Amino acid sequence: GTMAQYLSGKTPQMYLYSGQVVGCPDIPRTGGCRTNVEMTINEVDDVCDVKGMHQIIFYGDYARELRIFCQLYGIKVVT
Fold first, then answer.
1. Strand bridging mode 76-78 / 56-58
2. Which of 49, 41, 35 is nearest to 17 (CA)?
């Protein structure tokens, strides 16, 4: 899977990670986000190093395509 988050601003950035979805936990009875996934992430060893919140997740590895898109549009890729 591919996980991304766009940040606008003076220097636009995109947090970009690739990995594999390994699970989809149930929504807690007390509430919470309706869409949750458990995912291995190739670019970091510790999940605490993942930047951002509320990322977009794609099934499939589209990291290369997103890096090319960012290069074309002057967006800094952050992993």
1. unpaired
2. 41
63: pLDDT strictly greater than 80: yes
Lowest mean per-residue pLDDT among 11-25, 33-47, 62-76? 33-47
pTM of the model as a whole: 0.81
Domain range annotation of the chain: 1-6+42-72
Q: Which DSSP helix (H) or strand (E) runs through 66?
A: helix 63-72
Token readout for 46 is 């510790």
- Whether the CB-CB separation of 14 and 70 falls below 8 Å is answered with yes
Q: How far is CA 79 from the centre of its chain?
A: 9
